[in-house]
Amino acid sequence: MNRLSEETVRGRLKRPPTGDQNDPAWNRGRLIAIYIIAFFAVWTFRATLLFGIDERLSPGFLAIYSNGVKLLLWVLPAVLYLKYVDRVRPFPALLLVGDADRAGLINAIGASVIFLALMVMTTGVTDPDGFRRLAASDAGAWMAAIGGVWISAMLEEILFRGFLLPGVAGRLGFTLGNVVVSILFVLIHWPNWIWTGTFGAGKLVVSGSILLLSLVLGYTVRWSRSIWPAIFLHIMNNVLAALSHP
C-alpha cells in the first residue's frame, strides 16, 4: 500500500463522496467497515458479559479500569491501524497535532459555546431541579466533574472523530459520513443499557441528545481540522450533565 500523507487524511473531511473503486479512500472504506464491525463486537462483549467486573470495583478503581480498557480497545488499535495499515504518523492523522484552520477554529469554538448555552437553557426549561443543582455547583464540584470525565471523553473523540470520521467521510463524503459516525456513536452506548435493563423511552431521548452532540462534534472537527475543539465540547457536555444529574 502506498504511504498516505497526513494532509490526505485531513482532506477526507472536506472531500465529496467518491464512487471510484480505484480511489484509495474507497478501499480504505471497506477496511474501516471491517474495523467498525470488529470494534462493536469486542466492545459489546466488554459492555455486557464483562460488565460484572465494573460492578465489583470501588469508584476509584473503576475509573482507572474503565479508562484503561477504553484506551486499550478504543485508541490503541486505531493508532496501530494508522501506523501499519495507512502508514502515517498516528498523532497528526488523528488530528491531535498539526496546523489547525484558525478561522475554522473560531467557528468551532463559537459553535461549542452556543451548543453549551442552549444545553443549559434547555435544562432550565425541562429540568428545573437539575438547573438548580448546576447553578449551585461550586468550584470544587466543577473540578471533580471535569476530573471524572475528561479522560473518557478524550478517548472517545480520538476514536470517533479522530479516526472513524475521516475514514468514513473519505468514502461517503463528510455530511453522510458525519451522520453515519454519529449513529454509530449513539449505538455504542446501547449494549450496556440493554444488558443492565435501563434501556427505555428515557434512553431514547438521551440517544437523541447524543446524536445531536455528535453531529456538532463532527462539524467542529471539519471546521478546525483539529480534534481539540471536539474534545473540549465533549468534556463540557459531560460535565454539565454530571453536575445537573449527579
Shape descriptor reads globular
Strand content: under 5%
How many extended strands? 0
Rounded to the nearest angstrom, the distance between the terminal CA atoms is 49 Å
Summarize the structure.
This protein has helices at 6-11, 24-47, 51-56, 59-86, 90-93, 102-126, 128-136, 139-172, 174-187, 190-195, 201-224, 228-244. With 246 residues, the protein is mostly helical.
Overview of the structural elements:
By secondary structure, the protein is an all-alpha fold. Helices cover 80% and strands 0% of the residues. It contains 12 helices and no strands. It has helices at 6-11, 24-47, 51-56, 59-86, 90-93, 102-126, 128-136, 139-172, 174-187, 190-195, 201-224, 228-244. Helix 8 (139-172) packs across helix 12. Mean pLDDT is 90; it is low at 1-5.
Labels describing this entry:
single chain, mainly alpha, 246 residues, 80% helix
Helix and strand topology:
Blueprint: H1 6-11, H2 24-47, H3 51-56, H4 59-86, H5 90-93, H6 102-126, H7 128-136, H8 139-172, H9 174-187, H10 190-195, H11 201-224, H12 228-244
Helix pairs in contact: 2-8, 4-8, 6-7, 6-11, 6-12, 8-9, 8-12, 9-11, 11-12
